[in-house]
């Protein structure tokens, strides 16, 4: 059954990866990246979660492929956009495999032995609904992060993106003086520090525990970084709703992302966790 699912995934990736008329690569960087991506698409279709070594090897290869693709100077060319979309699909499939599930499969319900239920949050009834939702999301992300180690780079990246989205919602809360917001902010800072430690630790190092992880006071977030986080969350939300074949919108969001990058370059403290997350 697993083999049939894997074959189906390979067919799905092949069917969705190629446009009706593929554009010729605009430069050698795109050409080389496409070569790697095509080979990865074939291999992903044959992988199962049990082949951890192959998944890690291919994930490392895709990191180098993305670096090669980003070296292209023709990022508005259809061949670059096509390669970036296909690479993103391969990266998502590898992240699912690394998490122990087949790409695109519905997650199986966890049993009491597999993962304990997250305790309900003790939130006052008058708390802002956005804060309540953020606390629940932080509890979910925290439970997932507790299961991974420094070697799970794809999962670390996924949960960092999700955490940035929570930060955007918290930054939009009008009343930041409530106990519920203070608790959510503390949970966010602790989880951000945990992900930062995982990202900076060697892949073969044992995961840090709550007893060994150092506690550091959270420094205030610079306004420019806070604004950039909001903009990244907005762009991300719009990209998720965008049709995959809308090249004009892709170019527009790429220009907006470049503008955010320019703003971040002006930040004075680029070692702050909020800057690293953004």
Polypeptide structure, described:
With 278 residues, the protein is mainly α. Helices cover 63% and strands 0% of the residues. The chain contains ten helices and no strands. α8 runs antiparallel to α9. The protein is globular and about 55 Å long.
Largest sheet: none
Helices, by number, come to: 10
Number of strands: 0
Please indicate the percent range of residues in DSSP E strands (runs of 2 or more).
under 5%
What proportion of the residues is helical, as a percent range? Answer: 55-70%
Structural class: mainly alpha
Give, in order, the helices and strands.
HHHHHHHHHH
Shape: globular
**Cα-atom radius of gyration:** 20 Å
Poorly predicted ranges:
14-21, 206-218
Determine the N-to-C terminus distance.
41 Å
* Mean pLDDT, all residues: 76
Brief account:
The chain is built from 10 helices and no strands.
What does the secondary structure layout of this molecule look like, with pairings?
Blueprint: H1 2-17, H2 28-44, H3 52-70, H4 78-98, H5 129-145, H6 153-171, H7 179-200, H8 223-241, H9 247-265, H10 273-277
Which tags fit this structure?
single chain, about 280 residues, mainly alpha, 10 helices, globular
